[in-house]
Amino acid sequence: MTASPETPPSPNSLTAPRTSTPAASPAAPSPVLALLGRGLAAGSLGGLAAGLFSLLLAEPLMDKAIRAEEARSQAHEQHDAGAAVQHHEELFSRSTQHAGLVIALVVAGLAIGVLFAVAYALVHRRDPRANPWPRALAFCAAAFCAVSLFPALRYPAMPPGVGDSGTVGDRQAMWVAAVVISVLGMFLVWQVYVRLAGRSQPVRQLAAAGTAAAVLALLWALPDNPDPTPVSPTLLWDFRMLSLASHVLMWVVFAAVFGGIGLRALRARAGTEAASTPAV
After folding, report:
1. Which spans are transmembrane here (predicted)?
2. Measured between alpha carbons, how far is 172 from 158 in angstroms, rounded to an integer?
């Protein structure tokens, strides 16, 4: 018998399972949140690797640079007989500074991970299902050039104690300007490569390389470092190479973790879709 509109529903109809209406599927997680989690994991591990590397290899050089700076200060005080001799106690001990170095690089890695995830989502939003491994490697290589390599070529790392305290603000402003120019320049390189998609690979690659060279030339339009470097050339070279190597290690670990997690998520999603597809 067909129930009329006025017929109240039976109690059984409220508890029986409804086979005609499909069950609501759980909401899919936001891809941006997944990328943020991936960036935080990669950034923390990359920062930890760079911190341990600097602690084991770069810190002994920094201790040498500090001793050299103290020797220069003592010689200056002895030379200037009229000046009052002042001894400045360090606010933190060297052991505390060593621990703080690792913690600071982990925190910096977390911040880089968040920024990297947002930029990655914006650049690759049109093709979210592409292979994340080569894409993460290429994006990390571009980020390394923009954030670490290009600014370091223009303003190499300086050992502690080198430079006038009165020029700290100017030096920080010049380094920030170098980072901004490098990041915008790398975005321009990517735009040139994308917009020449209809051209052959040699044309696209040469155009991108020429744009990168122009960005490097623009960096040299910035003012020079105003401070001398009164340390031995060997110490200066070793310190700069170790500083750059810590950046390389950080980005290598970052790329491996970010791309590896993305590749694992892609394989898991492909397995789930294959299992849910009915056999023909």
Report:
1. 99-123, 135-153, 173-194, 206-222, 242-263
2. 12
Identify the sign of the CA torsion 268, 272, 273, 277.
positive
User: How far does the chain reach from its first CA to its final CA, in angstroms?
Assistant: 38
Which residues, 6 or more positions from 255, have their beta carbon under 8 angstroms from its beta carbon?
42, 136, 137, 140, 141
Q: How far is CA 119 from CA 75, 133, 140, 170, in A?
A: 50, 16, 11, 29
CA distance linking residue 127 with residue 242, whole number of Å: 37
What pTM does this model have?
Answer: 0.76
Of 157, 135, 142, the closest CA to residue 208 belongs to: 142
d(CA 100, CA 85): 30
Structure-token pair, residue 168: 């700290």
- The residue whose two tokens read 């341990």 is 52
Please classify residue 241 by burial: count the beta carbons closer than 10 Å to its beta carbon, then call 0-12 exposed, 13-18 middle and 19+ buried: middle
Distance CA 79, CA 246 (A): 38
Q: Model confidence over 185-229: pLDDT tens digits?
A: 999 999 999 899 889 999 999 999 999 999 999 999 999 888 877
Q: Phi/psi at 74 (nearest 5 deg)?
A: -65, -40
State the DSSP code for 54: I
> What is the Cα–Cα distance from 108 to 271, expressed in whole angstroms?
35
